[in-house]
């Protein structure tokens, strides 16, 4: 079974530029999450989707971050404009709605200069 | 407010010995707990989990213990192997919702 796919793996941008990340969850997993992991911390949830609907985006900085999951499969996370403090690893995870375990992709490491 | 805490940033053990990683939580509504292992430049890999209705779950060399009264869980690795060297994250959730993670413990298993 293929795991969660993410791209790109690494991205370096300058502050005030925009960036987008892509995630393809495990086949059949209706629930998809985006987490932000800052160095030295545990992952923190940004947004949760159930199919193509948003379940929880309470910790998403909506003035600069946006995410979508138009067809209930792939998802994109966008930052516009980026700030220095957005430097982090962005992790996508998916879950079969019938179980609690979330499975993570390899992450996208973002560096904002 | 950190609801899940891993107070030991690092742990060193010798190969073949037991590794014990600890995690404390404050939210009594958490009903599911997980341990993830993370290697550099990779995403967290699911290791083992436990429901709040149990106090122990085993999977090969890995055992998780849950003490609800103390709001404490621990991961035991026996015997430890050099390949177990990684960062271990404790996570908790309530009712199939988001995972709340600890800050991680870096385990180093030396030959």
Work out the helix count of chain B. Answer: 0
Cα distance spanning the termini of chain A: 37 Å
Q: Sheet bearing the most strands of chain B, described?
A: 6 strands, mixed
> Which structural class do the helices and strands of chain A define?
mainly beta
Q: What is the quaternary state of this protein?
A: heterodimer
Which whole number gives the mean pLDDT of chain B?
Answer: 95
Element string of chain B (H = helix, E = strand):
EEEEEEEEEEE
Compute the separation of the termini of chain B in Å: 38 Å
Tell me what you see in this structure.
The complex is a heterodimer of chains A (113) and B (111). Chain A is mainly beta. In chain A, 0% of the residues lie in helices and 49% in strands. Chain A contains no helices and eleven strands. Chain A is globular. The model of chain A has no long low-confidence stretch (mean pLDDT 94). In chain B, strands 2, 4, 5, 9, 10 and 11 form a six-stranded mixed β-sheet that branches. In chain B, 0% of the residues lie in helices and 54% in strands. The mean pLDDT of chain B is 95. Chain B is an all-beta fold. Chains A and B meet through strand 5, strand 9 and strand 10 of A and strand 4, strand 5 and strand 9 of B.
In short:
The complex is a heterodimer of chains A (about 110) and B (about 110). Chain A has about 110 residues and is mostly beta strands. Chain A has strands at about 5, 10-15, 20-25, 30-35, 45-50, 55, 65-70, 75-80, 90-95, 105, 110.
List the topology elements:
The complex is a heterodimer of chains A (113) and B (111).
Chain A: E1 5-7, E2 10-13, E3 19-24, E4 31-37, E5 44-50, E6 53-56, E7 65-68, E8 75-79, E9 88-95, E10 103-104, E11 108-112
Parallel strand pairs in A: 2-11
Antiparallel strand pairs in A: 1-3, 3-8, 4-5, 4-9, 5-6, 7-8, 9-10, 9-11
Chain B: E1 4-5, E2 10-14, E3 19-25, E4 32-38, E5 45-51, E6 56-59, E7 62-67, E8 72-77, E9 86-93, E10 100-101, E11 105-110
Parallel strand pairs in B: 2-11
Antiparallel strand pairs in B: 1-3, 3-8, 4-5, 4-9, 6-7, 7-8, 9-10, 9-11
């Amino acid at each position: 079974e293929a795991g969660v796919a993410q791209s790109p793996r690494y991205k370096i941008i300058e502050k005030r530029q925009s960036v987008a990340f892509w995630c393809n969850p495990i086949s059949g997993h209706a629930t998809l999450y985006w987490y932000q992991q800052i160095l030295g911390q545990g992952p923190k949830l940004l947004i949760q989707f159930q199919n193509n609907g948003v379940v929880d985006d309470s910790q998403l900085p909506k003035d600069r971050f946006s995410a979508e999951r138009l067809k209930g499969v792939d998802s994109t996370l966008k930052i516009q404009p980026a700030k220095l403090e957005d430097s982090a690893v962005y992790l996508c995870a998916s879950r079969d709605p019938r179980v609690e375990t979330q499975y993570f992709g390899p992450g996208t490491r973002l560096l904002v200069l | 407010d950190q609801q899940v805490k891993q107070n030991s940033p690092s742990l060193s053990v010798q190969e073949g010995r037991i590794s014990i990683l600890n995690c404390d939580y404050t939210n009594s509504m958490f009903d599911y707990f997980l341990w993830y292992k993370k290697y550099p430049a990779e995403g967290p890999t699911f290791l083992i989990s436990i429901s709040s209705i149990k106090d122990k779950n085993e999977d090969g060399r890995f055992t998780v213990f849950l003490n609800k009264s103390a709001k404490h869980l621990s991961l035991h690795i026996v015997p430890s192997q050099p390949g177990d060297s990684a960062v271990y994250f404790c996570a908790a959730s309530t009712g199939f919702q988001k995972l709340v993670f600890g800050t991680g413990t870096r385990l180093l298993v030396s030959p």
